[in-house]
Please model this.
Amino acid sequence: MNIAVIGTVYVDIKGYPLGNFVPKGRNVGDVQQFHGGVGRNIAEDVASFGENVSLVSLVDKTGIGIDVKGRLERRGIHTGYMRSTDDGMGTWMAIFDRTGELCANISKRPNLLPIRDILVEHGDEIFTWADSVLLELDMEEEIAEETFRLAEKHGVPVYIVISNIELAMERMKYVRKAECFICNRLEAQTLLGEQVDNPEAMLILMQKRKDALGIKNLVVTMDADGAAYLDEKGNAGICPAKKVKVVDTTGAGDAFFSGTAVGLTRGESLEDACRLGTEAASQVIGKPENVYIA
Model:
């Protein structure tokens, strides 16, 4: 299958203390740097499933930007729709505790508007080639607007990934147009208007609210409790999580989204697609890097 990914590239700087993290103290540990960004992560994840991937994104005019493109190309990802700009890549700094959970982070956001220019110039050829498009919805709204305009023109399904549920609520017109919407337990609390603690109760709440929300296919990930899913035909269920030792949770949500979107693009059921997402996410949780490697 041919899958186009529209999203960001970041540099991730991660700190892992050897002992308990002391917020205002001196913490001895390990600091590592990785290629990151939701769009870049997803492109690598999708490539690991053996699909043809094209990444529509930006990188800086620096050596790091060259390194990012080089790695993507070595992974077989098409980078012809990536543009080098003066402020094309973001930076994310994070500190994790000994269990792999995030303690603190700060990010620097890039200027993403040139992505819309890429879509205006090359969108027809991108969407003619693609069997599906995976969009990072948190970017400037002009990018989402152009993406869905092209999707409607060419009849291509769009799968959206989010990092900010409040922003997604403001952009529900795009969420309703998307083929599938995936969020986590905390995000579902905002989306569905109620807090529940187990997947069985989440399924009931999803069935109660889905029609009012107008979402085609809905998945809520619930960490060790697995994922609750509800498709557009009313088929619902719980996909159990895999037990793994947690090293770093960064990128697990991107991996779950990627596997699920790949499965649906292949024509699989939402249940089977969630199994692919669970497999990818469980592998990412068990290692420091952000992406699924088959």
The mean pLDDT is 90. The first strand starts at residue 2 and ends at 6.
